[in-house]
Design brief:
163 residues; two-stranded antiparallel sheet; alpha/beta; 17% strand; Rossmann fold; three-stranded parallel sheet
Length: 163
């Protein structure tokens, strides 16, 4: 769906006002996306985009993890993909700065890295603007040997669709 009215206010409440109770309804909406069920059925792992410990403490929960758990309770796992450092908010940055901002921000959990080889992974995020977070996370998963990486997002901003 497009990150615009009426969804923008609901997603902002979910994400920034500690209203994690919306996660089941929003995940159900994500499942209505064409091929979402197929992507999840074919996945070995469903991984949320991780938050830094600082941002997690500030928000009180990881919205992507909340969505992932409802999308695929058996395959969702919050411990495979790590946020290695806190980064400034991506919200106002152009795509090239977003990508630079995320260099080295993600890593695969070292004790699980070998088990990732050949796996089919679905990344879950709430809002995709430029795709920088998904791109950076997918890069480290690919380097660790993931065979196939897909993404499911709740909403996408329209303004950067042409970037």
């Amino acid at each position: 769906m497009t990150y615009a009215w009426p969804w923008v206010d609901l997603i902002a409440r979910f994400k920034f006002q500690q209203q994690a109770g919306w996660s089941n309804a929003l995940a159900t909406l994500m499942l209505s996306t064409p091929l979402a069920d197929d992507v999840l059925d074919n996945a070995d792992l469903v991984l949320p985009i991780p938050l830094s410990p600082q941002r997690l403490a500030f928000r009180g929960f990881n919205q992507s993890w909340e969505l992932a758990q409802h999308l695929s309770p058996v395959k969702a796992d919050v411990q495979w993909l790590l946020r290695t450092r806190d980064t400034p908010s991506q919200r106002l940055l152009p795509r090239h700065e977003r990508l630079a901002n995320l260099v080295g921000a993600f890593a695969v959990e070292p004790l699980r890295a070998a088990q990732l080889r050949g796996k089919r992974v679905v990344l879950v995020d709430d809002v995709m603007t430029s795709g920088a977070s998904l791109h950076s996370a997918a890069r480290v998963l690919r380097q660790a040997g993931a065979a196939h990486i897909s993404a499911l997002v709740l909403a996408r901003t329209e303004s950067l669709a042409s970037e």
